[in-house]
Structures are given as C-alpha cells and as structure tokens.
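Hey, I was hoping to borrow your eyes for a little while. I've been puzzling over a protein and I'd love to understand its fold better. The fold is given in discrete form, as structure tokens running alongside the sequence. I'd be grateful if you could look everything over and explain what you see. No rush at all, and the record is pasted right below.
>
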Amino acid sequence: MKTVTTLELNGEKYAVVPMNEYRRLVSANDAAIADDDLPPMPPRRPNGDYPAIAAARVSIARDVIRSRKAAGLSQAELARLAGIRVETLNRIEKAKVTPDVATMQKIDRALAAR
C-alpha cells in the first residue's frame, strides 16, 4: 500500500500522489484505451480455464500497453528508454512472446522514470 500525502486548501482536502501513480489511475479510466485496442484473451478450454502461458502473455501485454499509453509514450519511445528493440516491445504488446525478467525490468524502469 502506497502512502498518500494530504493537504488542505480553502477548506477542501486533497490527496497528493506520485505522478506515475496518478498516470496509472488516470489510464484506468481513460476511454482512449478501449478493450478492442488490447490483445484479446485466448479461447477458454472446455473446463473454462484459460491456457496459462497464453493468458499470462496477454495479461503482460495489456499491462505494458496501458502503462505505456498512460505515460504518453509511443512504442518507439518506450523501447528507446528501456534499451530494447522496438520489434521486441511490439511482440510483447501483441502477446506473441513471453518477455524475460530482465526485459520486463528494463520496461518497468523506463516507465517508472516517466
């Protein structure tokens, strides 16, 4: 749980949050990031479960896309900031590959710096 600083101005109380948290909150409500802009979940198996690897790839892809857009970055900009190839980021965002930990750390650091 993140700590939030509060302040009072003209009798009204406000919460002060870090900019990256603000962007995350705004992006969660941003109509510009519609579900049809995100990769779809894979088809369910007959028992109702999702295939684990495919579902994990989609979940990662959706998180990266939402975070990138909340930061106001293009794929090329995020790839440059993260020190990865644009093609790599594109494949991650299309849920075609499972990124390794080092690649996700680079992406996370680049997004946290925004």
